[in-house]
Amino acid sequence: MKWIALQFLTVLVLAPMALADGFLPSPVPVSEYQNVGVDEHPNAQLPLDLQFMDETGRLVKLADYFKPNRPVVLQLGYYGCPKLCDVISRAVVDSAKVIESVSAGKDYTFVFVSINPAETAALAGMKRQSMLAEYNRPNSDDGFHCLVGTEANIDKLADAVGYRYHRVDIDGQFAHPAVVMVLTPDGRMSRYIYGIGAPTQTLELSLVDASAGKIGSSWDKFALLICCYDVATGKYSLAAERLMSFAAICTMLFMGASFFWLFRHAGPGRGSRLGKPRVGGQGIDDSGNETTQEMK
User: What is this structure's pTM?
Assistant: First the structure.
């Protein structure tokens, strides 16, 4: 009984680390899914000269998808994945559809690279079409690309981003992590977004952050001033120090503006007249003589 309980706990721990279909298939031993995960390589440069084949069967380089001011969302997986890869892709597209400040094809590019060297450009083409149909936004044809490649180039790309996977000897499946990566326009690692979902705010701010603020709305750029990326949670959250600093700056600006307004509206001439005492119907004129006002 204790042995069964131990196995059950082991499955609960390893399952979220991303199996090919999101769950541990019963015939597969737990050991098949060890050493699967992500070794983060922040700011690492991708080998952009690596060659792959796109959805049309054309030979391309990774560099073809990196353009000025346009970050890249990268997903590694495979088109024949029973469940997990498609769930991740759909989650990214669902989040992307909600974001209004940036658009795929105009502001960023999504690139899916298969880790299965046996898969074909035809499968890549079907995957791309399904993503375009799901996104369903005008002028987004250049926003989604799906690639296949040789085992050697796949491994070089996986090593560069710290993506650890391996083939499972059952029905040609692969054990792999559940993650998408956001890269800068010049091909450097910027963010890792884990899990089968891609929170809309995290995806949006990751894209704006990776572009160094060159895309996105004014609100997105303001949010980056008061938010920071939490490596532990993989999300953006309010940074207390930044928020306090921003509040202090706003207070100083408000006080400065208030003093300036008072100075402009209470100058020497107005101040001298406003400051002359008046008691009842008597006052003092500009020569210092007492005057009397008639009461009407």
Answer: 0.69
